[in-house]
Amino acid sequence: MSQFSAVEEAELQSLLRQLLKSIEERISGAPSIECAEEILLHLEETDKNFHNYAFVKYLRLYVENSLGAVIEEETESCARREGHSVGSSQDTLVHAVTRKTRESGEYKQMMQTLKNTMMVVVESLINKFEEDQLRKDEMNREIHHEQLNSHYHDNCSDSDSSFNQSYAFIKQEQLQVLAEKLDPSRPKEVRWEALQMLGCAPPSDVLSCESWSTLRRNLSATLADPNPDLSDKVLRFFAKTFSSSTLNVTREIYTTLAKSLESEFLSHKLKLPAGSGGIDVTRQDIARLLKQMRLINDFQKEVTAFWIRHPEKYMEEIIESTFSLLSLPSGQALGSQGPERALEPMHLMALLDIKATWFKKWMHGYYSRTVVFRLLESRYKYLIVAALEQCLWHYESLDTVSDETADVIHSIEHQHISIAQRTVYSTKELDYAHFLHSLCVLGRLLMYTSGRKLFPIKVQQRKDPVNLSDLVVILINIMYQHPKSPYSDSSHADTLSPTSLVMDVLRTLADRTECAVECLYQTPVIEALLAPIFTLLSGKQAKLSSTETTLTHIADILARIATTDRGLSLFLYERNLVLDEGEGSSLSAACVIVQFTQKLLAKELPVLQGGESTPGMSTAFIFVCRQMYNTCEGLQVLRPYGLHQVIAAAWKKTISLSERVPTPVPGAVPGTSSQELNDIAVWEEALLDNLLNFAATPKGLLLLQQTGALNECVSYMFSRFTKKLQVSRCEKFGYGVMVTQVASTAPGVLALHSSGFVQAIVVELWSVLECGREDVRVVHPKPTSMEPIDRSCLKLFLSLVNLVSSSHAVGELLGCQPLPNKSEYNLREIPTSITDLIDRLIAVNSDVKIHSLFNYEQSHTFGLRLLNVMCCNLDSFLLLESQYNISDTLMQCQKDNIIDPSAGEGDFIIDGLSVERNHILVRISAIGGPSERRLPPRALQKGSEPYPWPLFSSYPLPKSYIPDLPKITQSQSDSAISVFLTSWKDVEKDGTWMDTCRKEYCKAMNTKSNIVSGNVVADLLEQVVLHLSTLPSKRFFPPADYKAMESGLKTRSLSCVDQLGIQASLRYGRSLKLLRERSEQDLTLLMKHCQEFLCQQRAKLKSTLYSLQEDYPGHDWFASTVFLIMAGDMERALHLLLHLSTLLTSAFLWPARIHKSVHLPLEIAQSGIYPVYSCTAHYVDMLLKAEVPLVFSAFRMSGFTSSQMCLQWLGQCFWNYLDWPEICYYVSTCVVMGPDYQVYMCVSVLKHLQQDILQHTHTQDLQVFLKEEPITGFKVSNYLDYMESLEHSYRTVVLTDMKNVSQRIH
Known about the structure:
Layout: H1 6-22, H2 24-28, H3 33-41, H4 43-46, H5 54-80, H6 93-102, H7 105-149, H8 172-181, H9 188-198, H10 203-208, H11 212-223, H12 228-244, H13 247-268, E1 271-273, E2 278-280, H14 284-303, H15 312-326, E3 340-342, H16 345-352, H17 357-364, H18 366-378, H19 381-397, H20 402-413, E4 424-426, H21 427-446, H22 449-452, H23 468-481, H24 498-511, H25 513-520, H26 523-537, H27 547-563, H28 565-573, E5 578-580, E6 585-587, H29 589-602, H30 615-629, H31 632-638, H32 643-660, H33 674-692, H34 698-707, H35 710-722, H36 736-743, H37 746-755, H38 757-771, H39 791-803, H40 807-814, H41 834-842, H42 847-851, H43 856-871, H44 874-884, H45 886-895, H46 912-925, H47 972-983, H48 993-1007, H49 1016-1030, H50 1046-1051, H51 1056-1071, H52 1079-1095, H53 1117-1125, H54 1130-1140, H55 1146-1149, H56 1151-1154, H57 1162-1167, H58 1171-1187, H59 1189-1198, H60 1202-1211, H61 1220-1233, H62 1237-1248, H63 1250-1258, H64 1262-1268, H65 1280-1299
Antiparallel strand pairs: 1-3, 2-4, 5-6
Helix pairs in contact: 1-7, 5-6, 8-9, 8-11, 9-12, 11-13, 12-14, 13-14, 13-15, 14-16, 14-17, 15-18, 16-21, 18-19, 19-21, 19-23, 20-21, 21-24, 23-24, 23-26, 24-25, 24-27, 26-29, 27-28, 27-30, 29-30, 29-32, 30-31, 30-33, 32-33, 33-35, 34-58, 35-37, 36-37, 37-40, 38-39, 40-44, 41-43, 43-46, 44-51, ...
């Protein structure tokens, strides 16, 4: 192909133009010509459409036509050449052909032709572009000339037209001439021409010229010129400067504009006509001011993005010039009766930026906020005073002009500053806009410490200065009196109503601790919030413009206050907030709120019978109460009101309403709309949700169980739990704590099982543990876990631990449930219950079970770890052992791990599973505290002997796991206690003996705690219990009239659990060297006596709970403890237990004594929830929050509860957790000092473990640590003083509630 024809050149020119248009954005965005060239050179690499451009396709075709024959010839030549090899990358066939082609004459001719043609094409394009540009410039000049002749007026002050303008260099002499031409005395045409030239000059040159002061003065004068052409031209110059200059330049322009506006307001003093008159934005003077103020406001909102990069003095000048402008006084009081008032800059600012966005942005950053506060405090406090006076004036005028105010609100909410839509604003509308602007400014000030320090403020309308509480009360009253809009236009949100803005302020204050303390947690504020509620409770009509809406807003703020500890304390214990005129006594805020909520639910408020009491409002107030009753201290105050019963009654009524809805019949007229049905469903869910939150505390869970709605609440919780929904807007954590709390009790775990919660956890665990990610493992191989429990399973492991932590839960889930032990397991068969999980992961006693696991070692290790945690609870272990023979299964697995089974106890194969099994076998075989047994580690050690602990496959336990404990000897302290006990005679008749005994006991404990020797503790307990049981005032239960027949005892048989418990107790007693040879028969006889005695005091109940089917479901660890204290003397132990059964202490120290007791109300006995949980554990939670808040928070964060751990400790009398002396001190302290010391003991233990608890909360294994590890280093004597201090603070509350154990719960 030789030369291009004219047609081809024209086509090539058209294709090139298309290409340039396609990549115009890339080229125009290049900062330099060199960059544009780079973009073109690398276009093929960066543009995915490169080969689709018509120009590229044309060139490709041209190259193929020109060089196709040459390429084919060279290819054939290279292929025929003998000895051709492809030894290196430079000698390949492609490179060889390419090199030959580029050296050919055809290639050189093609390139020369293409180059010449492209030069012609490009030159032609340039010529056409220049012609088009000249034509465009000529057209612009003609249009501009027409604009000058017609005095074109532009009503927009935006800086849009300042873009795409070029700057021209200008000399200082020219700027001097321009400054002179801008003198107000010069003709309009001269000044216009000067402004035109000034617009082409760089702003930095203009500001740096010597004549800037003159130029600035003349520009300011031109801004105020009545001719809109001139003032708008200056404004455009300023707008262009703002958009394209540095802060140093824009700061000068901004201050010039602000000073000009300030001078104009001072000189002209525009008036606001009284009455319905106002301002017309089409008036030239108003339009000019409005445009200038708009430019200022636009700059205010944008400058915060970059002023931090410049010196602070620049920012300070901008802020100060703004405050100077806005603080111009009107000289006339608000609401004055004069004919006219002055128009202030703040009126226009409020009209343009009604929510004070500029001020919010200035206050957002600390850099600017500091300067703002400094200037407000030192020189411009008038701005705050004016804003405060505006709010006061609006508040005081609401009563008289409520209808007019509603119209003003509606018009302002629908305002549009545009000549086409809105041109006139009345004085009332301007004042209302000013009020909203002031409200937003004050609300922003209250958010910051420096802003709150500006108060109190002296204002004209009030004699006393206005402090923070006064201001908040004013805002609340504005919300109360704000008229409800009569307009039903739903197309516009109610964002400009005072109610909405006040609520924004109050919510912000409530969510910030420091703000809430200074502004909301004040008596006047709480009184203002409660005033409408108390008025309605009194049967009077509250002065509220919209009762339902306002009460809902009040409830919102009250709920936010109650969420915090400080606010909750204020509600519960501050009794100077509301005065009950009827009874002449003061009430706490909590009492007022709960009474109002009860009457709302019962529809007993006559003033709200007109349809204003809606489910939404009731839900809001229940939510306030919920923030109180989901805490222990809050429930303590609210419990007497029986709110749980009222909510449950409302829920049952709603259920009956939904059940009455008839089935839809085709053709019949529907009686209930779908919206009404939806409302009923929402109301029902809200009531269930609020009932469920009673389960956040132990006593609250008992109250919930008494309502009969526990199963429905747990099912509702499970539905939200599976969707991973938040508990509420005020809760930081999920349902973990609540699930754990519910799982602590027999009815709770049964409800969890019925809801499908247990099955869901088991199935999810199996899918993670066994199924994994098989479908993507090739692409993303799963890393091999170095931990016994993989991180992906840890959360589910902890959930299972929380679920089976309580022996009551284990009994309900596993009681009378045999293991499947199938002969064959389908690989697709998924466990659905805890029994299945034990069968597949723990009791792996056959090859079938081993082969059914994809990850045998990992899964079996998981099961053994779970078993280890479950066996930490002695009653849970006894149940597992009695039903599944866990120890035999583990022993058999250990035997299978022997290298040479024929040699008997030969060498064991030491692997992860054998080490895990060894640890469990030692744990379940040896009983004792931290120094009374040695638990082997579950990890191998470095060195030549990785596991020095002996493995075993049969009993007895190797001696290396049980230390040889010394026999306890008598000491001087023992003698002192013994002397005291023997020195008093007629103890039963001496009323002061008990007080003296307590003093001597504390003295002995504080001097030397080793009083557990010989029979000292036994003698002490005997005398104390005998003394208290003979005093009618101390006797809580009727005296025992027990006479056991020997024949009856012989026929009574003990359960397998009891027999295993007796064997464990005997092993512990023998290791302590406390028992004799006949101890087994004596302990068995004692257990039979206890069961015979307690059976006579048990109610006949019908229940589906496993724990209520037979006798006490676990072993009587307290009776075993007393037996060991009495050194195996059955007669003394029985005598002590019979007398102790008459005391209140027995209801808490001796769980078997209170099981199904006739001394409990029937509904409590049927609940299966013991007083040690609903009372002791409840107050442990309550005291932890007040005394050891870090531990309380750690439990909340971990999803575990202190109540569940205390239930385990107390249920087994601290066996395996404390050494024997401390267990004796626990029993003696509770008997001598009082049953409430059981609470103080648990708090002291948790306080002792604080550092460990915090550490294991961080490592996410708190529950495992607390259950598996003994309580090392704890001495009762070290914490007795602390317990006495707790008694001094809390005995009135704790002991009083303990004494109510035999009364019906309300």
